[in-house]
Amino acid sequence: MVESQQTMGEKIAVVGGGSWATALIKILTENQVKVKWWMRDAEAVAHIRKYRHNPHYLSSVELHPSKVKPYLQLREALKGVDWVILAVPSAFIEDALKDADPSWFEGKKVISGVKGIISSTSQLVTDWFAEKFAVDPQHLGAIAGPCHAEEIALEKYSYITIASASEDTAKEFAKLLTCRFVKTSYLTDLHGVEYAAVMKNIVAMSCGIVHGVGAGDNFQAVMVSNAIIEIQRFLDTVVPLERKVNVSAYLGDLLVTSYSQFSRNRTFGNMIGRGYSVQAAKVELKMIAEGYYATNCIQRINEQYKVDLPIVKFAYDVLYNKEKPLKAFEELKGKFV
């Protein structure tokens, strides 16, 4: 647990204009910080300046102009800040940062709020960022844990874990996200936490698919129970490290994403299970389901490691091999204990 510090003077840039970016800004402004918020939507920036809320996402969250200033120019948003938070869906992050220069991030600590993977390279976000922008790996971290943006907007009590290879970086940033409705902790299993977040999206999407074809709560409970074993099996092979996956950064995030009404991955999967095409589900959801892209990436990564991943294979067969969801479900049923 990290105690809240209300007198902090750090300056933070948040990159991204969606619901998670808005929720993170709400948390940050509970403390004495200055937030420079970059987004690409000129109309949204103008709206925030005039009406003090995001017009498209979590519009109930009031944004205080003394603490939050929106920007259209990324370079300007990054000037003079101590921390940079990435809150852009993984499918868009390369495009969002395509014009950025490594010098813009010099001396800054960068925290990924992206619970996804870079689809073009199958890289974890922190690895991709370190390679592209030459940021010291000790200055990189990731946000983990069961924490839906919609509940943050409602100030529902939540738990967040900050992971970094540097304990100091993790601990420092955890303090910034500690407030009256958020409890934080930290750990040093950065890559394990990132992979777990990627895989829980695949599991949640798969839960939606099987629900869409008629499976009930009993089967989903068995599926999620087996999923944490599958995730641990993958982590122990790809990122060998002593870890406890039954804590909130791993299991908690898996559970909330698999069961919550706010889970876009579960919702997306449910559409697929009910017969929607991938394209139709994307259009109706109107938000990114990270699990769709993650499925292809984890499948590709696992070609090297050959870990037994029945849930990943199930999702891949349905989404990319175009296997009928009901047929894939019948095959999946025999894989669990």
UniProtKB/TrEMBL annotation:
The UniProt entry, under InterPro entries, shows: 6-PGluconate_DH-like_C_sf (IPR008927), 6PGD_dom2 (IPR013328), G3P_DH_NAD-dep (IPR006168), G3P_DH_NAD-dep_C (IPR006109), G3P_DH_NAD-dep_N (IPR011128), NAD(P)-bd_dom_sf (IPR036291)
The entry's NAD(+)-binding residues are 92, 149, 264
| Gene Ontology MF term list | glycerol-3-phosphate dehydrogenase (NADP+) activity; NAD binding
Sorted alphabetically, the Gene Ontology cellular component annotations on this record are:
cytosol
Enumerate the spans annotated as Glycerol-3-phosphate dehydrogenase NAD-dependent N-terminal domain: 11-169
**What keywords sit in the KW lines?**
Lipid biosynthesis, Lipid metabolism, NAD, Oxidoreductase, Phospholipid biosynthesis, Phospholipid metabolism
One GO biological process term is: glycerol-3-phosphate catabolic process
Reactions catalysed, as given in the entry: sn-glycerol 3-phosphate + NADP(+) = dihydroxyacetone phosphate + NADPH + H(+)
Q: What's the Enzyme Commission number for this chain?
A: 1.1.1.94
According to its UniProt record, this protein's enzyme class is oxidoreductase
Residues of the Glycerol-3-phosphate dehydrogenase NAD-dependent C-terminal domain: 189-329
> Where, by residue number, is the active site?
200 (proton acceptor)
Q: Which domain of life is it from?
A: Bacteria
Which Gene3D superfamilies has this protein been placed in?
A: N-(1-d-carboxylethyl)-l-norvaline Dehydrogenase, domain 2, NAD(P)-binding Rossmann-like Domain
List positions binding substrate.
115, 264-265
NCBIfam families in the cross-refs: PRK00094.1-4 (NF000942)
For this chain, the family text in UniProt reads:
Belongs to the NAD-dependent glycerol-3-phosphate dehydrogenase family.
Supply the name of the protein.
Glycerol-3-phosphate dehydrogenase
Q: What lineage does UniProt assign to this protein's organism?
A: Bacteria, Pseudomonadati, Bacteroidota, Cytophagia, Cytophagales
